[in-house]
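Case 474 in the screening queue. Each case pairs one protein sequence with one candidate compound; here the compound is iron/sulfur cluster. For every case the pipeline is the same: read the inputs, emit a complex structure as tokens, and attach any notable structural observations.

Predict complex for case 474.
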Amino acid sequence: MESISVFDMLSIGVGPSSSHTLGPWRAALRWIEELKEKNQFDEITEISVDLYGSLSLTGKGHATDIAVMLGLSGFDPVTFPIENIEKEIDFINSENKLKLNGELEVPFFPKQNIIFNRKFLEFHPNGMTFKATLKDGSKKSSSFYSIGGGFTVKKERKRKKIKLAKFAQFPFPIEKGTELLAYCKAERKSISEIVLENEKSLRSEDEINDGLKKIWDVMLDSMYVGAHTKGTLPGGLNVTRRAFEMNKNLIGDSKYTNADEWIAAIRNTEVKFRQILKWVSCFALAVNEVNASLGRVVTAPTNGSAGVIPAVMLYYMVIENHDANFEDVRKFLLTAGEIGSIFKKGATISAAMGGCQAEIGVSSSMAAGALCELMGGTPEQCLMASEIAMEHHLGMTCDPIAGLVQIPCIERNAMGAIKAINACEMALDSDPSKAKVPLDKVIATMWETAKDMTSKYKETSEGGLAVQVNISDC
Ligand code: SF4
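Case 474 output:
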């Protein structure tokens, strides 16, 4: 089994899609690395990219072409200033040239050099091949696969060995929920404590804290920015941003100038059930509106589902525990990350492989278990909460209208967050020893359902809402 860190499951990136934007962006960077290692980089005269299968079918709506160009230009998706995206892409489009890794100028005609192929490569639905011509006329090519959550792999899996070695050094190697529970029981530790020990075998505690703090800062910022930005989302569907109005109506006349003051202001509002529903929805919508406008979000475990985990954490901070601090955030993210990794090992977090159950379903399950730990649930209750959240997402299809990560995606995050809170509450009031469906069984069921699902419902925009609703109706 390969190691999966919390920092693999939760990573800072750019919207709108982890598999169709972040993955191809990272793949382009990996290709440049590969060319440099082989001393071929300086010899390049021409380049092109072939996108296959789901990457091609929903690539335009998911900004795959933009991501590939930014990756080829050598920009880092974590630090690249998103306000510069338009300028960089306009330059390539108007000059018909691209500065490979910011160093080597090559001719580049986006319409001809990024080729959208309807055919699927055998290894994975999200395939792409980068091609280069060298000065001596020889051709080089390399294929990558974006397997969900921003992860990229090659068919020959050269990095597999390193990941296997890292897994072997974990004090608590975990593949399944049952193993996680056994460690918690034997060590008398919570889920987050067990996960922290594993993370410490990869990096220092300071680095872990620093990394998790950065992740939370981006999560909070995406909620704050989304809740204070009005207008229409890009892409042609004319979707109105709703978090702005929701926040305005809920917060009333409170005055604040930054995210921390905003949290304090929310804590001072009177909240009944309806307001709680609206606040949680507002937080989730805010993140995914930022995501849909190519903003910076945390992939958790994907970009399409990036709103669920932050929304549930902020719910805890403003509704359940006004004294919540970074220690709570840390526990929450560690637990959520581990649950996500168990899904990745036993099933998939790629919508192109498993539909939306693999995105919103997994994020809801991660958030449910993590919230349960903060609410004082036992490890058994945490996994029960995760199981309940996924059980009621089983079979959910991926059918984004016009290939954009907007409808149904944005609202689905609100639904996933609310379902996570409900699943947590039910688990807290239950005896997990009486649960009929353990987490591992629901993961196996999700995977079987994924395999049975037709490709129409796996991020191809060839079924469901994507064909019932015409872009001209929007
Ligand atoms: S429908 Fe779900 S899986 Fe598909 S793009 Fe939207 S959020 Fe992602």
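Case 474 observations:
- The chain has a mean pLDDT of 95.
- Residues 167 and 338 are 13 Å apart (CA to CA).
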